[in-house]
Amino acid sequence: MVGISVDSVARNRVMVDKLLLPFPMLADPDAAVIAAYGVYHEKERRARPAAFVIARDLSIPYRYVGRDFADRPLTRELFDAVDTVRDAVPTMLRSDPVPRGPREPTDTGRVPFPLEHLPPYMRGVNFALEAIGERTPDDERLQKEVATYRSIAQDYMRHGLATLKLRRS
Amino acid sequence: MAELPVDFALEDENGHSWRLSDKLGDPVVLLFLRGDW
Fold first, then answer.
1. What predicted TM-score, i.e. pTM, was given to this entire model?
2. Residue B26, in any domain of the structure
3. Which residues neighbour A135 within 8 Å (Cβ) at sequence distance 6 or greater?
4. How far is A125 from chain B (nearest CA, A)?
């Protein structure tokens, strides 16, 4: 598994250390690879949340492109797709070089969010979503969205706390 | 858009080159993240 974003090598270093990420983070500041995989968000000038599973026979048994920042692939689906192609016949990957990307590499200067702030921030998000859910009990579609995003917020809280514990140990 | 997958090489957080075609001995998961955290 590997992460790809428009962030610089230095910023990725901070993120890997902060979150104790168990996989590499790759820097794609001009979004060349992001655009080549069709997941460049023109307006936001960065990647849409997306996941691709690439098998060694070069098939792609799973691809997911999120509608917005909160729309993420389900972990279970992703890992199930990996399991289905473990025995694929290896094929050499040959392709033309990726053309230059559409984004001018810039550093917005934003300071990364401290990990210690993540659990209380997500607790607040969870409470806000709970309130929205209670105000709109008859809106089935909204209730489903609220439930999904509350689950995401609770996951972030849990994993944030677990990462903090790991860092302290 | 070229047919996927396309090969590429990018730098990891330590400045080392990471190339997709070198890693395809096993299935590879590419996670595209918004970044600019």
1. 0.84
2. yes
3. none
4. 17
